[in-house]
Design goal:
By secondary structure, this protein is mainly alpha-helical. It has helices at residues 8-26, 35-50, 54-69, 82-92, 95-107, 111-121, 127-136, 144-156, 161-170, 172-179, 183-190, 196-208, 216-246.
Length: 247
């Protein structure tokens, strides 16, 4: 709800402090950790990196670079941290890291590793890289069964949200022809809409398509969700603003 508002900086700083403290206490190593501590560490690392803890991001990028340089089949990245490491390395890395992850997605023979890399690719902060990634979904460069998931993942990136909405509107016929039912995509691309402008944009696009077919219900739900989000912002934004500024 706050991603596109002036409060997001203060909110991110609060979340960073919240997860940096336990991360300093429990550390990054899973060695001699019990099951619950391993789960806790994975959660804390994920959120600390997500909100920009410098130690967390530096370790993730370094771990990913070790993976890029390895010539053996063994993965040097701890299995419990791979998702966070991959996502963070792509987010704070450059084109080289993205291209490596993309090639690994295309060539790796383990499905779980391909899924992790596909998710990581959506974390880039470069608009042109995300735009290229979206274009790949309409070609055989991205497996057809992964295309809609790739688009949905880009939409969860604050930088990619508006980019995906433009992409969906500009390529609606091609998207529906290639993938058929895309209700989940409609839900994801509009899930964080929370302004009157978002609502108007959504309604205008819905009205511009004479036959939405199976996606019609998804657009109706999206409009209802957007209206609910607008009400939530009206009721809670000032309360959260006052609370954040009081910390």
């Amino acid at each position: 709800m706050l991603e596109r508002t002036e409060l997001y900086g203060d909110f991110s700083a609060f979340m960073k402090r919240t997860f940096s403290r336990p991360l300093d206490r429990i550390g990054y190593s899973h060695t001699v950790s019990g099951h619950l501590e391993t789960l806790l560490r994975s959660l804390v690392v994920k959120r600390a990196c997500e909100y920009g803890d410098e130690n967390c991001t530096n370790i993730a990028v370094s771990s990913f670079q070790n993976l890029m340089q390895t010539t053996v089949s063994n993965n040097p990245v701890d299995v419990d941290s791979r998702s966070s490491v991959y996502n963070t390395a792509i987010k704070y890395g450059g084109v080289n890291e993205w291209d490596f992850a993309y090639n690994r997605y295309k060539t790796h023979n383990v499905a779980s590793e391909r899924i992790l890399m596909l998710r990581a690719l959506s974390y880039s902060r470069e608009v042109w890289v995300l735009s290229r990634f979206l274009q790949y979904t309409l070609t055989d460069d991205i497996r057809k069964q992964d295309g809609v998931d790739a688009m949905r993942l880009v939409g969860r990136n604050p930088i990619g949200r508006s980019l995906l909405w433009d992409f969906v509107r500009g390529n609606w016929k091609e998207i529906t022809k290639r993938f058929g039912r895309v209700s989940h995509l409609v839900t994801d691309v509009t899930a964080k809409f929370n302004t009157e402008f978002d609502l108007q944009s959504l309604q205008t696009f819905k009205d511009s398509i004479p036959d939405l077919g199976s996606s019609s219900a998804a657009f109706d739900r999206a409009i209802e969700t957007t209206q609910a989000n607008i009400k939530w912002m009206d009721s809670n934004f000032q309360i959260i603003k006052d609370w954040l500024q009081s910390l």
